[in-house]
Amino acid sequence: MASRQTQISAYVSRETKDLVDRYALAHGVKKGHLIESALLHHLQALQEIPADVVIPPVITVTRASGEALLARLDKGGQPTAAMKELMSPEGARGED
Q1: pTM to 2 decimals?
Q2: What CA–CA distance (Å, rounded) separates 4 from 89?
């Protein structure tokens, strides 16, 4: 049974369009199929993964928060015990 189709429109960056074009050409898939598959996969993941563990692909930083971040980075400082543990090979594996 053929499903009904509809057209949607969205603005994307030139870089994203170029990635889609290159992938479709290299893998011999239609762009519409690639985009629909990607959207379905993304929407399913958003439904199944807890919202607090989803990392957005783009983080928007205001001028004020960006300047505060830079100031904190310039300040430097020593890593905390928790940071050292997290970055250790044992901490990375979560071994106790």
Answers
A1: 0.55
A2: 52
Distance (Å, whole) CA 69 – CA 72: 5
Length of the chain: 96
Report whether pLDDT(45) > 60.
yes
CA 44 to chain centre: 15
Q: Please, what sign has the CA dihedral across residues 49, 55, 57, 62?
A: positive
With vertex at residue 31, the alpha carbon angle to CA 29 and CA 33, rounded to the nearest 5 degrees, is 70
What the block records as the tokens of 84 is 């050292």
Which 3 state secondary structure label does DSSP give 62? coil
2-41 pLDDT, tens digit per residue, is: 578 899 999 999 999 999 999 999 999 999 999 999 999 9
